[in-house]
Structures are given as structure tokens and as C-alpha cells.
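Subject: design request, 473 residues
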């Protein structure tokens, strides 16, 4: 009897200890990105709550660099909060329809020092395959998983494969100007409806230097990332569609920023580290080109890390891209035999832009490099898609003929800064509303077509250009 009581006492004690251990969740989901021929990045984060608290406290109206919280309150009490949690994460993954080939990463510990996030590099993947995965989390080593998120991603097909490829282009998304309240931004649902192979994010994923709160500390910056990707529409989208992220000013540090600057307590290196911490990025240079089958190659430019100060006088030495990236762009464009060459830029290359702006290639401040870049891209028959401007447009460069399409802001409330009265002969299309671009490269008999569609926040196609293969000049 005493033995039985002792066993029961030990068992009950163990159950009590297990019950007292904290649990973990994935309120901010997972993100897949940076897919290459046989590898990609998969970002996972653990949270202490099952869902972001959209019913939390509102931030008061405060000035930049003041205390952003109501007196006596913490970030965990604020609307949108999704605090991180310590634990372990891993990913199981397999080619679609081939469950028997499943592989798994090792369990990896996450801590609050990295916002409870970790990016796995999945390598040795089957080229051109579509993959399924399950990301799992647990609160302590040795325990079974207690939370999981399932998803999928597409790898680029080989350059010999003539198949249709489609992708979406988005930029400029602000939590306070979302258009689906507690669900997030409507465009994420509409993008899922068109089933793209990937999405190109042209920057301003969040805004550190916008109020409620002004994010001039690491804690506030992380809060803004967690709050935005805790919204269900964007959280669910990124588990199903791979992304290529390109940084811009507001998600690096502050408006029109360049290396060496600070924003409150955040310096330049902290801004770069936070960006890399929050997104599915493979190691290596921030600019990259990725071949997506015989019809399409895409270049993702880096416009913040290597730039000259905006206030520097224009000339041959003033740059946004930097010497190494310029040489890479020349070399890779020359080497490509893709039917369509699309360059993704965070900021405009063609424009026209507002006269008050001076930090992109469409502005006078970078005219020398802008002229060089437009001539280079036109000579190789490339086309440009960009973000940054809060209106949708299609335009052309009168001198070189280079064409550019801007996706606009992520919501109609966020659209503005330009008007239909400012339309010029450069504009082939102009609309002061939000939405996204949907780009489709498809075979057409012995040839091919590239369709570029401006889609509104309601999912309706507002404008379409259909291009035939370019003849390099």
C-alpha cells in the first residue's frame, strides 16, 4: 500500500510539474522566402499567446523619442501584442505528393534575445518542386510538440523548363491603415486567390517612424513587426506563398535614410540586424537574381545598404547601388538568356516622382546613376517593377524607352501623395489608389507573353499591359 501511494505521489508530482510548464504558440505564423534552385529560408517564431491581442490598449498620441506607452502599462498589454516565448522549433518538409521523402531539421532553441525567432535554411531540395512543410514548437527540450503551422512553397523551375510563372508585387503597408480591421490587409486574401508562385515585397513592410508607436528602440521595433504579422490575412498568406523581401527606408531605420544614421536609440547596424531577424532571408548579399524557368529571370536590387548620402552633390561618385552591385547587375544581365528580365526595385527608376523627393533614381539627386541605370536596363530589354510611391502607375522613360510599373500602397487609405492632375506624357497609366501588381510570364506558341496587371484592394484588375519578348538594343 505504501509503495502504491509513493508511486501515485511521484506520478501526481510529475503531472503537476508538466502542467506548470509554460506552453508556446505561433501567433505570428511562419514565413517562407528567398527560394533558389535547391534551397530556401523558413522563418519560425514562438509566442506566449495563441493569437495577437487586437483588443488590447491603444497607444496614446506621443511625439517621437518620448515614452510611447500609457503610464504604468507594458507592450504586452497593447493592441496587437504577440509576445515571444522561449522554446524549441523545428521544420518537417517534403515534396508535394511524396510524404515518404520527408526530412526534418534539428530542434533549435529560440530565446527572447532574438525575438523568439529563427530562420532555417532548407537545402538539398528538389529543383522546381512544390514542397509541403509543418513547423513545430515546444516549450522545453525533450517534450513533444505543442504547436504547429502547416504550409507550402514553390521552388524555381530550371532554366530549360517553359512553364507559366506568376508573382505578385507589394509595398508600403501600415498597420493603422489596414482595411480589414482585425484581419489585416485585404490584398493578402486577393493575392492568395490568384495563386502566385511567389511574392516580391518592395519594402516599407512596416514603418518605424510613424506614430502609435514611434519605434526608436529595439523593443518597439520588434513590437511593430510582431503586431503586423500577427494579423490573420498576412500571417496565413506567408505560410502558403514564398517571398523575396527588399528593404526600403521605413523598415531599415527612418524616412530617406542612408548608412551611418540613427533613429532614437537605433543605429544603422541595429536597423539592419532587426530586418534580418524578422524575415526569411538566406545568408549572403542582399541583392540577388533568381531564374524562374525559361521565360523569367528576376533581379532584386538593394537600395539602402550601399547608398551615398542624399545631400551629397550628384556626380559619378554618388550612388544608390554601390560599385559592386553595379558590376554584378551588368554581368548578370549580360549572361541571362531568359525571355523576360524583370528588375524589382524598392524605389522608382523611371518615375516620374514628386518634385519634393530626392532619394531615388527618378530624382535629380541621383540623376547621373539614374541615367546609367535606365540605359543599361533598356539595352538588355529589362522591365522594372517598384514600390515606395503610394499610387499605382505604368510609365516609360522618354529617352531609353525603359518601362516601369509601380504596385502602389497596400490599402486605399494609404494611397496619396500624387494626383491625377500631375499626370504627364510619361504616364501610360495612373491611379491614386492602393493594391498590388500581378505579373504573369506564360508560353504563347513558339513565343511568350508577359502580363502586368494593376489589381485594386477589392481584387479587381484595373489595368493590364501584355508584352512580347523584348529585342535588346
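Subject: RE: design request

Done. Sequence follows.
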Amino acid at each position: 500500500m505504501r509503495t502504491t501511494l509513493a508511486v501515485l505521489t511521484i506520478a501526481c508530482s510529475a503531472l503537476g510539474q508538466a502542467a506548470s510548464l509554460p506552453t508556446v504558440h505561433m501567433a505570428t505564423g511562419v514565413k517562407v522566402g528567398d527560394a533558389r534552385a535547391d534551397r530556401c529560408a523558413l522563418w519560425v517564431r514562438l509566442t506566449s499567446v495563441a493569437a495577437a491581442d487586437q483588443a488590447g490598449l491603444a497607444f496614446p498620441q506621443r511625439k517621437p523619442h518620448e515614452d510611447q506607452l500609457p503610464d504604468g502599462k507594458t507592450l504586452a498589454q497593447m493592441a496587437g501584442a504577440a509576445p515571444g516565448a522561449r522554446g524549441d522549433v523545428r521544420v518537417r518538409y517534403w515534396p508535394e505528393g511524396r510524404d515518404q521523402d520527408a526530412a526534418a531539421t534539428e530542434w533549435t532553441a529560440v530565446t527572447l534575445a532574438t525575438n523568439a525567432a529563427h530562420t532555417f535554411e532548407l537545402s538539398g531540395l528538389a529543383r522546381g518542386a512544390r514542397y509541403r512543410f509543418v513547423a513545430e514548437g515546444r516549450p522545453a527540450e525533450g517534450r513533444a510538440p505543442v504547436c504547429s503551422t502547416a504550409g507550402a512553397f514553390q521552388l524555381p523551375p530550371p532554366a530549360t523548363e517553359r512553364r507559366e510563372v506568376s508573382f505578385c508585387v507589394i509595398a508600403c503597408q501600415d498597420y493603422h491603415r489596414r482595411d480589414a480591421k482585425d484581419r489585416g490587409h485585404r490584398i493578402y486574401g486577393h493575392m492568395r486567390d490568384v495563386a502566385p508562385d511567389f511574392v516580391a515585397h518592395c519594402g516599407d513592410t512596416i514603418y518605424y517612424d510613424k506614430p502609435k508607436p514611434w519605434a526608436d528602440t529595439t523593443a518597439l521595433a520588434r513590437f511593430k513587426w510582431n503586431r503586423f504579422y500577427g494579423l490573420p490575412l498576412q500571417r496565413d498568406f506567408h505560410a502558403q506563398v514564398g517571398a523575396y523581401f527588399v528593404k526600403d527606408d521605413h523598415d531599415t531605420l527612418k524616412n530617406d535614410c542612408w548608412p551611418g544614421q540613427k533613429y532614437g536609440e537605433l543605429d544603422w547596424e541595429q536597423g539592419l540586424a532587426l530586418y534580418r531577424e524578422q524575415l526569411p532571408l538566406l545568408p549572403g548579399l542582399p541583392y540577388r537574381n533568381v531564374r524562374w524557368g525559361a521565360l523569367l529571370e528576376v533581379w532584386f536590387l538593394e537600395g539602402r545598404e550601399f547608398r551615398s548620402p542624399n545631400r551629397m552633390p550628384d556626380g559619378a561618385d554618388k550612388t544608390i547601388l554601390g560599385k559592386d552591385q553595379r558590376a554584378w547587375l551588368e554581368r548578370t544581365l549580360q549572361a541571362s538568356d531568359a525571355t523576360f528580365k524583370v528588375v524589382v526595385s524598392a524605389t522608382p527608376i523611371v518615375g516620374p516622382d514628386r518634385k519634393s523627393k530626392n532619394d531615388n533614381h527618378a530624382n535629380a539627386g541621383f540623376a547621373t546613376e539614374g541615367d546609367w541605370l535606365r540605359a543599361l536596363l533598356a539595352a538588355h530589354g529589362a522591365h522594372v517593377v517598384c514600390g515606395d510611391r503610394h499610387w499605382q502607375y505604368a510609365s516609360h522613360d522618354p529617352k531609353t524607352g525603359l518601362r516601369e510599373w509601380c504596385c502602389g500602397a497596400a490599402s486605399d487609405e494609404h494611397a496619396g501623395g500624387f494626383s491625377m492632375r500631375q499626370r504627364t506624357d510619361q504616364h501610360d497609366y495612373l491611379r491614386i489608389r492602393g493594391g498590388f501588381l500581378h505579373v504573369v510570364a506564360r508560353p504563347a506558341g513558339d513565343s511568350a507573353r508577359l502580363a502586368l496587371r494593376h489589381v485594386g484592394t477589392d481584387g479587381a484588375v484595373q489595368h493590364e499591359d501584355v508584352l512580347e519578348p523584348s529585342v535588346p538594343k
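The longest strand covers residues 435-444.
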